[in-house]
């Protein structure tokens, strides 16, 4: 079964997101834990969270993905910025226990001139402080496109972070197709890309995929998502991604520039391309 969904607004609550997902043919989805450009988080209604959990179980959803705010930078040179990231992510992981057993994705951050090694150690330090033995949420590092001083532009950079995390069983990776293409990984040579990932990180750690086309050419080190078939990656290559034996059972989440009707059309298209 293809587990496919999109990014949904959490403003109407947990169960409402589940109902919206069903209405557009999705069986997973992603949402921001709080304002993506700020710090405020809406109070969680335990009954609403329980209703979502029941809906996910009834309709056999794949794990859903919570996305940390874009404003967080665990790799910052500023101690206050790092502390803000730590406290926010710590709070997010506590809140995620209302919907246990799901995924929490974040951008590793930017070293802002300190160098990859220094920034990487800051990310490791944060993860070693926030991860707990009792949490049920898997924390995912997202592959990045490499713009500016982003960390996570290569599988090796992700490996360096993962190697330093003590509770490695709580960690995984979310591969963004736009980002890896912009970072220079040629998805038309998908087997080669996945073999590289397996050697550097290990395919068992790949837990989710952001399925996006890209407006930029291979290796551009930018980050502009396109609708499926509307960019340089193309429908055929993205079809190969969802049908690859190593990937086909993962949750796929669209982050394409779309409204709900557009997402519904993309989900329908991708289901028609899925070979089961």
Properties at a glance:
276 residues, alpha/beta, eight-stranded parallel β-sheet, two-stranded antiparallel sheet, 14% strand, globular
Major sheet characteristics: 8 strands, parallel
Helical content (DSSP H or I, runs of 4+): 25-40%
Please compute the radius of gyration using only Cα atoms. 18 Å
Number of helices: 9
Low-confidence stretches: none
Number of DSSP E strands: 10
Could you state the order of secondary-structure elements as H and E?
Answer: EHEHEHEHEHEHHEEEHEH
Report on this model:
This protein is an alpha/beta fold and 276 residues long. It is built from 9 helices and 10 strands. It has an 8-stranded parallel sheet with strand order 1-10-7-6-5-4-3-2. A two-stranded antiparallel ribbon has the order 8-9. β5, α5 and β6 form a beta-alpha-beta unit. α3 runs parallel beside α4 (116-130) and α4 (116-130) packs across α5 (155-164). The N and C termini lie close together (6 Å). The model has no long low-confidence stretch (mean pLDDT 96).
Secondary structure: elements and pairs:
Elements: E1 3-6, H1 14-23, E2 30-32, H2 46-58, E3 65-67, H3 79-96, E4 103-106, H4 116-130, E5 138-142, H5 155-164, E6 171-176, H6 177-182, H7 190-200, E7 206-211, E8 213-214, E9 225-226, H8 235-243, E10 251-254, H9 260-273
Parallel strand pairs: 1-10, 2-3, 3-4, 4-5, 5-6, 6-7, 7-10
Antiparallel strand pairs: 8-9
Q: Gist?
A:
With about 280 residues, the protein is of the alpha/beta class. It has 9 helices and 10 strands.
